[in-house]
Design goal:
This protein is α+β, with helices and mostly antiparallel strands. Among the domains are: 196 residues, Nucleotidyltransferase, domain 5, CATH 3.30.420; 65 residues, ATPase, nucleotide binding domain (Nucleotidyltransferase, domain 5), CATH 3.30.420.40. Helix content is 37%, strand content 27%. The chain is built from 11 helices and 18 strands. The protein has a 5-stranded mixed β-sheet. Strands 14-13-12-17-18 form a 5-stranded mixed β-sheet, sandwiched between helices. β1 and β2 form a beta hairpin. α1 packs across α3, α3 packs across α11 and α8 packs across α9. The relative contact order is 0.15.
Length: 445
């Protein structure tokens, strides 16, 4: 099997670590060849806090995926989330030396690099700079400035910021697991790629990814990402609450939540009771489902309200920024019974559960299309995109090389003949960040 065609997503989560191997099939859909998952022990609220344990979990997940796909994993695209991620809006401009020349990639790079000079809090680093829309000489709402004329080019940016040390720790874990870092992606963006359709992104949609340790939010409108946030609560705090509220051990609390849990207390009759075996010969405990769902309800409402505050921060209440497609819930936490109804009740927005089958090949396993794996599927897609980009860049370089090298006996194109070169995409900041993390790790050895 050709290894350059496959891509591997590594989702380092708070509750589980997933390694997923995929490739594009002939129809441009993503085919998942292997999947491995292991319990995540060294991660707290999306941030690595025990490197040794995380490395073991990564290796276990990777081995499982390799065995299933019968392929060797060398490079991975890894997701980054965690409570240290925050985002801000910023606008910046450049003045061009010559307004008679059309705007090209270099002008945009210059503008983006300027944003990177923003002064951050100590220990923070810019992870993504995402241009929203451009203005040229005061003319607003320009989506694609390349090829236009103008002296002053400005743009609004969505800037995502995170802690350097957390990013480096993730890089460290991947490297020590014997893998190469192919790329780093913001997890809410990866999940969004896996579960949202282009129409939803155009109409305006909020993706809420409820994980074990964190809840990630990504807001899209007019096809562009407008807001991201990471809220440091997820499914684990719900389990904690059940454990405390019912005085049972965590394993039992988790099972209760999955099997009998509901986010809507009115659903349960008073006489529905679950009996839980006591520890070491103690009496069994009886828990009413109504109480269980009251505990769950209280915490889930808190999480959703925090997310809703972020959606309002983006400006959902302004007519122009209205999210017509409403909310899409994904992640393991989205499988809680009656959660969709509760979210609709609190926010008044249309809600659906997002399954990552938007871009998957038809014959994929149902397991893979579970909201649990949304981030992993998104990371695989991201890796495939990255490979595509590298391939295009290589073609461009080869063509440029060929053009430089051709001697007199070659036919030189006439003045008005256009030589078609494949479009070279500009390096996203994440690729640069990945390179920096790699350099840092290589020098730190």
């Amino acid at each position: 099997m050709e290894n350059n065609k496959i891509s591997v997503g590594l989702d380092i989560g708070t509750t589980k670590i997933v390694a997923m191997i995929g490739r594009k099939n002939d129809y441009g859909k993503v085919e998942i060849l292997g999947i491995g998952k292991s319990k995540s022990l060294g991660v707290h609220r999306g941030v690595v806090n025990n490197i040794t344990q995380t490395i073991q979990s990564i290796q276990q997940a990777v081995q499982e995926a390799e065995a299933e796909a019968n392929a060797k994993i060398e490079e991975v695209t890894v997701g980054i989330a965690g409570q240290h991620i925050r985002s801000l809006q910023h606008s910046d401009y450049i003045t061009r030396a010559n307004s008679e020349v059309v705007i090209d990639e270099e002008d945009i790079d210059r503008l983006i690099n300027q944003v990177h000079k923003l002064v951050m809090l100590p220990g923070e680093e810019i992870i993504h700079v995402l241009p929203q829309e451009y203005k040229i000489d005061g003319q607003a709402e320009i989506k694609e400035p390349i090829g236009m004329y103008g002296g002053r080019l400005e743009a609004n940016f969505h800037v995502v910021v995170g802690q350097v040390s957390s990013i480096r720790n993730i890089g460290r874990c991947v490297k020590s697991s014997g893998l190469e870092l192919e790329g780093i992606t913001l997890e809410p963006l990866a999940s969004a790629n896996a579960v949202l359709s282009q129409e939803e992104k155009e109409a305006g949609v909020a993706l809420i990814d409820i994980g074990g340790g964190t809840t990630d939010l990504a807001v899209f409108k007019d096809g562009i990402i407008r807001h991201t946030a990471v809220i440091p609560f997820g499914g684990n705090v719900v389990t904690e609450d059940i454990k405390e509220g019912c005085s049972i051990i965590e394993k039992q609390a988790e099972l209760l939540k999955i099997k009998f849990g509901s986010a809507w207390p009115g659903e349960n009759k008073d006489n529905e009771i679950v009996s839980i075996p006591g520890l070491r010969g103690r009496e069994p405990k009886e828990i009413t489902l109504k109480n269980l769902s009251k505990i769950i309800h209280a915490r889930v409402v808190e999480i959703i309200e925090q997310v809703y505050v972020e959606i309002k921060n983006y400006g959902h209440e302004e007519q122009k920024k209205k999210l017509i497609a409403g909310i899409v819930l994904t992640g393991g936490g989205s499988q809680l019974k009656h959660l969709k109804q509760l979210v609709e009740y609190i926010t008044g927005m249309d809600t659906r559960i997002g399954y990552p089958n938007e871009h998957l090949a038809g014959e994929s396993d149902d397991d893979i299309a579970s909201p649990l794996f949304a981030t992993a599927v998104g990371l695989v897609m991201d890796g495939l995109k990255r490979q595509e980009r590298k391939r295009v860049e290589k073609e461009v370089e080869e063509m440029e090389h060929a053009i430089e090298n051709h001697s007199e006996d070659h036919v030189i194109p006439e003045e008005n003949e256009v030589v078609e070169t494949p479009k070279k995409e500009r390096k996203s900041f994440l690729d640069k960040l990945t390179e920096r993390v790699k350099d840092f790790l290589d020098n730190a050895e």
